Every structure is written in structure tokens, then in C-alpha cells.
Fold these 3 entries.
Entry 1:
Amino acid sequence: MLEALYDRIDDKRDELVELTRSLVRIPTINPPGDAYVDCAELIGRRLARRGFDIQYLRGEGTPGDSERYPRTNVVARRDGRAPGACVHFNGHIDVVEPGLGWSVDPFAAVVRDGRVYGRGTCDMKGGLAAAIIAVEALIESEVDLPGSIEISGTVDEETGGYGGVAYLAHQGFFSKPRVDHVIIPEPLNVDRVCLGHRGVWWAEIETGGHIAHGSMPFLGDCAVRHMGAFLARLESELYPALAQKRTRMPVVPEGARQSTLNINSLHGGLAEGYDGLPSPLVPDSCRMVIDRRFLIEEDLPQVKAEVVSILEALRHERANFSYELRDIMEVQPLMTEADRPVVTAVSAAVERVLGRRAEHIVSPGTYDQKHITRIGHLKDCIAYGPGILDLAHQPDEYVDIDDMVASAKVMATAALELLTGRAP
């Protein structure tokens, strides 16, 4: 039965490529959230022709949602002939802006050297297309499957997922008894099963000052210099301490097995984008956004306290030092247990299809599993899909066609086991 299923997926190779190209050609750039409706409807029309019930669900009131940029998700469901488990494949349809440095049109979906190039090929329209082909091949094999299969195309993963998976999770779309197992085809290499991710704390820090004429800075108080003092303390105190924190989580790449802190942005003084001569002013505000990734062994209050303690020390030691700290986002680290049904099914399928043991990993950054676990309270969730993680958000992003075909076979095999309750 499996060989016939694999032959069917091989026969769909060109169809898989064309579906990927069709998805990539819709420039669902986020922000602001372009063309979500067009992409959701492409998926919905295709799956409706294959017997799925289709729902379009707008995340009204979520960040970025508007009449011009509606946060429109698509959820497709196909029930079997008998009751049973539900396997859900979830892929995000939004992509980041293309940026500079491309050698091809980022939305032309060029096929070259066994690869499809374009923004979103790797992250993660190639994975979503592979999941759709896997499910279609399984249905066309005419196996009398119990239970249900769902496929969703969701929005805003690149900006936190609040209009997509988080919104749907609040509506019960990622909870039992509706759904039992979730596979997210993120690009984490075709022989890896991703169990979860590190935690994240984003925050904005603003240092204050006093405006004055730039020729007489002694009459003002430079907020940028105050921020510079904070940056110096990060370099001398916090960065060395973070480098000593290591985790048991199998995070990839190796450098992400420690705690990290990224300075996401820094701005003080004259507004950005002004191309005339600057006015001679002492800046009275300087803002910095930090991106702190932390480990399952760490406690979020302590993570925050490490930054606050430096700011408070400066407030006592440095004349006129003042600051404000604003939380932007916080996500706890998570890791699905290795003996969960979805982990064992996908791992076994990797070994069957590729002939080698699956590597269990943890992602350095978060993805929509966080909402499925936190809001939906569904623990049987992993990420698995084609694509090389390092290519995500890069110019000349691509997905390997052979990897898409292989991952479709893995997903079809795993779904068959999860639905029937027995290894194929």
C-alpha cells in the first residue's frame, strides 16, 4: 500500500511544483498583510474540489486587521466514513518582504537546478504545498480512512501569529475533541522533527533626556549617551553571563543552545527618513528594542530581572538617568515529549522514506506551535517540513523539489498511522 502511495506522490511531482509556484506568486507580504484573501481562496478552491468543507475565518480585531488588510485564514476539513482522530496540517501563508540581493524575481517562482526560487518557497509555502499533495494522494489512494483530515492556511506567523493560529485557537480550532494531532510544515530540514522552540521576550527600553541646542549640549541631557551607558553594561555584564547558560534542549544551530540577546533596533534624536540637514538638538529620547531568547531551564521573571537590575543600577549611579521599559511580547519555551504519537509517527515515517533516523531538534525561534500549546492546550504538535532553515528570510530563498516530494511522503505516511492507529 505504501509503495502505491509513494508512486502516486511521485506522479504528482510536477503538480507539487506548480502548486508551490502558484502560492509564491501571490505576494502575501507581512507587514502589512497583502493578498491574504487571494491566497486563502486559492487553497480553499483547490481543497473544495477534493471534498473538503471550507471555512474562511477573519481574525477581526487582531493586530493589523483592517478592511484593506483583512486577516483572512482558511480551514479545510474532510471527515472519514467512521469516527476517529483528526490530523491537522497547519501552514502560514504570510511571507516577509523580499529585501535586496536577489538574482531572480522573488515572486516569479523560478524553477532552476531542481529548486523553486522565491520569497516564501522555503518559509513555508513549499511545505504547505507538500502537505496538500500528501493529503490529496492519501485520499486518492481510496483507503477507507477513519477520522478527519484538516488543512489550514493561516496568517501573520511572521509577526506573532495573533491574527492566524492564535485567533483560531481561541475559537477552538486547535483543541480536543476537534483536533488530536498537528503537523506544521516549517522548514527545518527534511530529516528533522522539531519538538518546540526557545522562549522569547521582546521589550522596548527608552532612556530619557533634556532637549537643548546642539552647540550647547551642557544645557541639555543626551538620552543617546544614557542608552550608550546601558549598552556598555550589556557588553560587559549581560552578554558574558548569557554565554554561560546552556540547555538540554536539542536546539539548532549549536550557537542557539545558549541564551541570546539581539538588539533589534535603536533610535534616538532626529526622525528617521529625513534627508535634509539635521537640526542642532540634544536628543531627549532614545529607544531600543531587545529580542531576548531564553531556555527551558530559565524563568521569565528572572530573565526580565537581569535587564531591570542593570537599568536600576544605572539609575542610582548615573546622574539624571531615567528609563521606561515596555513589554512587547513574551512566549514561554516549549518542547513536546518525544514519545507523543505525532512525534513517533513522523519519526518512523522519516526513517521509512529516507532510510535514516530522524533527528529530534528544537527551533531557535518561535513559531505557531506556541499558540496551539498555550491557547489550544493541545500537546501533540510538532513542526516537520521541507526546506533549509538558514535560507528563511534570505535573498534567493529556495526549496528543493526532491525534499518537497520526500516530505510529502513522510507526511502522508504519518497521517496514515495517526488516523488508523497502526504503523503502515
Entry 2:
Amino acid sequence: MSQVYNWQLGRAMSYPHPEAHPKWQFAFCFNLNRCIGCQTCTMACKSTWTFSKGQEYMWWNNVETKPYGGYPQSWDVKILKLLEEANPGGQKWNNSIYEGKTIFEAAETHIGSEPERVLGYLPTDEEWRFPNIYEDSAVSKKGRPMVFDKKGASLPEHKTWFFYLARICNHCTYPGCLAACPRNAIYKRPEDGVVLIDQERCRGYRKCVAACPYKKSMYRPSTRVTEKCIACYPRLEGKDPQSEGRPMETRCMTSCIGQIRLQGLVKIAKDGSWVEDRYNPLYYLAKVAKVALPLYPQFGTEPNGYYIPPRWVPRNYLKQMFGPGVDHALDTYMVPDRELLAVLQLYRRAKEIIYRYEIKEGPKVFETEIHGKPFTMYNDTIIAYDKAEREIFRTQVEEPFYVRPNIHQNSI
């Protein structure tokens, strides 16, 4: 095992391969406060990539309802249980430093039928059968499973609650699938960090299926090899017929009705850290405002998918899912400052990847108090630029209000 640095854990960790990093890294941020569970992203991916024989059960993009839902069923509960068994009572954070074991470190001491590079498991066929299991199922009253709390709910935390968790492959910095493959068939592209499977080298051993803690490597029985999300890399390269040579967001991103998705590329230094890029929206959300958090950072893969947590969910549940930064992320999001409010307007305004934004200040339009803190809204203009520094669009914080002329048959 090599020693690599994982900035999400705040420490070095064991990994089966030496440290190596791409020049740019594909990354995204999903705002879970906006997701309506419409599955439009799911069907956009399905109709593009997984509509063929042997791919019937493959949902590279899925939206599952937490706390009960999951695809495959109970994927996160099972891997968390394996980590706890490997290190009883030790899976803890000390401020921003993770003191527990990752899936790579736990594998070193795990006793099983054969040695493994990564701690994991193979889901059963039944667990792959239900991509929408427990959709819209709220958490029950404490101690009474599947019974709703009739006393109602109140913000910021609901007594009866659920939320939608949209998921794709995280194209991790230290992928579990890559670490486990005995054929070295899985690799990260040096130009954008997208994790791909060489279909000619793959022999369908399913080691990657077992090793990926997010279960985003999927075996295809008709070809007897494994497939996964490819981050729509022709669109990243600007080769999509609609792109006119501009790097574009993935199919699932651009189809999002709820405007929860923002995707881009971040600069990576030789040591794996993010190069300071102050006005890249992803850098701002993850590194400056710190409202965007990785999904299960304790797994150790350093996922490049980030989430703004849902504000109505109990904090303890969110902390085991997104790590110790939850309190800061939610407190900041619920009372956003001037810049954050403007950056949130970038979501789903265009198909092109945003590399830089600029804010032009506007007049004050609103002032109030939220959760005991002062809040002021300014009608600033935010401008988005592409990789070539061409303007993609500009929009305002105060969204325009249109009144349709009363000249149509169905006018109200």
C-alpha cells in the first residue's frame, strides 16, 4: 500500500497505487434543497447510455429517497456496517480530521475468504431490482417503523422527513473500483480525471462492483464486462453536435428541471490539491463558502461529487453522510451572503461548462432577519464565462416577473 494525501480526511491514508493526479478534475455540486425527485436526469442518462440489452438494470444516474431508499438497496448502510465491524467504535472525526479507517485501510485487517485490496461487497440480484424502492417514504416515528408522525413538522427540522439524493459516479480521486481491478482495466483520464473502464482489458471479475462503495460500477451480463458512468466525456471535450466546440455539461446535468445541478472542471496541482481559482463556481462553493460537501468522505475515495445538504433533515443524519462540515454549510446556506446568493443563480442557466463568474453589484432590494441573523438582498448581476473567456450568459439575483397580456383564450 502507498501513502497518499486525502484533503477531505485531513490526513494521509493507504491506497494500493502511488499518488498521481490529472491536470483538471471533473466535479459537480448538487443542491439537495431543490431536488423534486422528478427522475428527469435519470431518464436522460438512461435514454442516452443504458437502453441496450444487458443494461436493463443499469441506472448510472439515479435519485433515491433517503432515509429508506437506495440503489442498490441499502448500499450505504451495508458499507458503513462493514467499516464499523472492521474498526468498532473508531469511525470518528476529530474536528476536520478523520480518525477512523477508510475502505482501503479496513481491507488490510479484514479477515475474509480471500485477501482484498478494498473493503466491499457484491450486491445480490434482488438488491439491483428496485431503483425506486421506498420513493417518497418519510422516516417513521421513533421506535415505530413505517408509521407516520401525525404531529406535523416544523423547519428547520421535520419530525417526519425525507429527501431526494441524486447520484452519479463521483469520479473519485482515489477510486475504489480502480484500486480493486486485477486487470488494471480502470483508469483516470489525465486531462479531466474522468474514471473509465477499458472494455478490451476488462474480464468481468466484478472486483470493481464489490469495491466501489457507491455501487456505480455495474456488470453487464450480455457482454460479460463491467460498465459505468463516463461523465458524457464527448460533451466535456466539446465534440457534441450542439456544443459548437465549447465544453458542455453532461446529459443528466442539462436536463435537470429542479435546477439542482452545477458541473465543471477544477484545476488540480501536482500534490492533488485544488489550485486556487477564486471565481470558479465549484471552487467557491467547496473551498470558499464551504457549503458543498462530499458524499461519505469517510470511505476514503475523495469523491468529486459535492452536495449542499437539505436544511430540514436532522443534523446527526447529515453528518454521518457528509462529514463534520454540515453545521457550517447549512448555517451559511440558510442565511446566504451577497456572493453566495449570486452564485446560486448560475445553476441550470446554460448547457456550457462555467469556468469563471463575475459579479456586478446592483441596488439593495430587500432586508429582513432570518433565523435571528440579518439578511440583505441585492439585485446583483452575475456573468458566466466559458473556457475561452467568452460570455455564456448573465442573470440577476432578483428574477424577472412577467405578466402575460390578457389577449389569449386561456388567460386568467
Entry 3:
Amino acid sequence: MPEDYREMWGSLGLNLEAHDGLLAVLSDAYKNIYLTQPNRPVGMGYFDFVISEVHGLRIVELLKDKAAGKPVIGTFCVYVPEELILAVGGVAVGLCAGADVGAEEAEKYLPRNTCALIKAFMGFKLAGLCPYVESADLIIGETTCDGKKKAYEVFDEITNKVYVMELPNKKSADGKVMWKHEIERLAAKLTAVTGKEITLEGLKNAAKIVDEKRRALQRLSRLRSADPTPISGLDALLINQISFYDDPARFTTKVNELCDELDERVNKGEGVAPRGTPRLLISGSPMAIPNWKLHYIVEGSGAIVVGEESCVGERNFHSLLQDFSSVEEAMQRLAERYLSINCACFTPNDERFDDIATMTQTLHANGVIHYALQFCTPYLVEAFRAKNAVEEAGLPFLRIETDYSLEDAGQLKTRVEAFVEMIKDGGQA
């Protein structure tokens, strides 16, 4: 990492010594996990570059945007409409963290039995390690679980930047009315913060940018259905993670360029693993950068990950925004599109199990691993119904509960290897 970034990091209030240590650890992990993969697509070079500059060039870009009057808006969840942020001239960046960092500091504010994702975003801020939080003008949270809901109260006391959207518990008629109101309330908040009115033209342009990004990710997902698959699950996961903070237009271009290369691989019958390699769908809790543990274990155990029924995956790009002809109609379309995301926070949540079944079919998965972070109650509870749905479809199912640490990596590898061998033998869990 170039030395001249240190002045920028210092101006943002980062703990430079701790930050140097973090970047060194992440660089080594990335080299060991990603750069050792055989037969990677050439197009992954761009995404390797993005990771190498994750706290460097991208932060430079954000600070230039701020200087040009473009607000930087941090988000934690796929329920926050990126279209509204772009419509006021803003830049959206994801703030979720996938590393076991700053836990000791976070536990001064949070219970020890808090899920790793919540503890991580608190820890990154408290340990002085996140330039994205420091660059943000506004941070938008959402009530997708009780842990996040209460943590945002504390996070706002620390940052004085947090705005929270309230999700309904049910997708009922009343819930839909409430959610549309929340979309409108967010639009008013963004206008108040930026001083820019949301116009039909602004929304149309924003919707085009976001939908083009979704189309590129949908294209990537379809290509993963090929056997042999032309890209590893690790690389596809990385692309989905990067989608939350890279420049959206540039990101879309690079994903489509990669997909052109993957199309050629598919046409030639070339893949990153031999034809007939066991194909697994991973379903459950989100996996934020640099949470690559499960994919690394799976793909080091003789299988390939072909899809993620996750917020960092299918839920993020599953559908496009329907057309609209007025600002009022746009608010309705945004409410409908974002409420169609099937998070475990809803009750009932039958549609999520339909999504799992559909993805196993379209991606030709041979089995499903249900991944839940420790203390993530919504996904831990839904694992029971997910298991029933998968086994009713005649597929093997493996339930995993873990955190961000590597302490259980050996145990997980043993379980995953046994699961993969069972699939190879044509068995049922």
C-alpha cells in the first residue's frame, strides 16, 4: 500500500499502527485464499486490484466526491434503496464488516453474546480501523433484528450520524403501507441532508444505474449454473461483496467484461473444477468482506459453491425495479421491490424457502449448506424449516453455526468434507 495514504488515514482519525497491522493480515489472507486458486479468470484482476486499494484509492475517490459536494452515505443492509441515494447525487457504500476486529472495544458497549457482524461494525469504528465510517456523512441502519436495532442506538451516540429505517415484521397490507411510508421518510431525510430535491429525472437515472448493476450480477449468477462452472464460488462471493462499495457504473462494466470471458469458458466447456464436481448452495446469514471462511473450506474440500441465498448474493440482485412515470409511483415501486427481499426478519417467511428451492434447481446444486452466525436468532431458527424444505426436495442439507474466528476451521472442514463425500456417494443427510 502506498505510503502517502497514511496522511489521509491520519486525517480521518484512524489508529495508524493498528490499521497497518490489519492491512498486513488481510493482505496475507487474501494472497493465501484468493491468489493461490488455479485457473482463475483473467477478469478477476480488476477485483484483486479493488481489494488491494480497499482502504486506499477508493477512499481517495470518496473524499474527492465529498469535496465536490456529493454526500457519502453508509449502509448496512440491502433494504436501503441505493436509487434514492444516487437520486440526490450521493455515493452509497456498504459498512458491514466480516472480520473479528475490535471485539474487546465493542464488548464495552455490547453483550458478549452479540452476533459477529454487529460486533464487527462496532469494533472497526471503536478500534479506529474503518475509513468508510469516518468518510460517511450519514449512516443508514434498519430494524432487521433486535441486535442491530439496539446497536444502532449506541452507534449513533458514538458517531452522531445514524438514521434508522423501520421494517415491518410482516408483509401484510398494513406492513406494505408502513414500508412505503419509510421509503418516503428516507427520501425526505436525504433531501434534508443534501439540500437536493428528488426528481423524476434523478430517479430514472439512478434506477438505470442500479438495475444495470443488478443485471450484471444476474448474468454472473446464470453463468455459475454451467457444469463445469467457469468461476469459483470464492471469486463470485468477492464480486458480490465488492458490489456494495465500488463505483456502480465502473463495477457493472468490469462484471460484464468478466462475464464475456466466462461465456467463452462455458462455450469451450472449461471450468475451475472438473465436470461433475459436487455443487453446493450456501444459504443464510450475510458474508461481508473479509468473511471468506466457509467458501474457502468448501472449495478446499472437493466441492464448488455455485450460489448464495444471502444478502451478499441473490437477495441483493434478485429483481429489477419496475418502471414508473412519477416520483410518487417511484416510491411505490421502490417499496414493492425492496419488500420483496426475503430476509429471515419476516414472519412468516415462506418465500425464502421457495427461493432456496428455485436456486437449487436453476444452479443445479447437489446440496445445501445453511450458514448462520452465532447469536443470529432469525437465521438460526429458520434453519429448521430450511432443512425440511431442502430434504423434501431430495437434497442433502448441512447446518453450520459459526463466527468470524478461525478457531473452528478444522472442525468445520471435517464436517464439510464428510458432507461432500456423502454427496459423491449419492447419500442423504
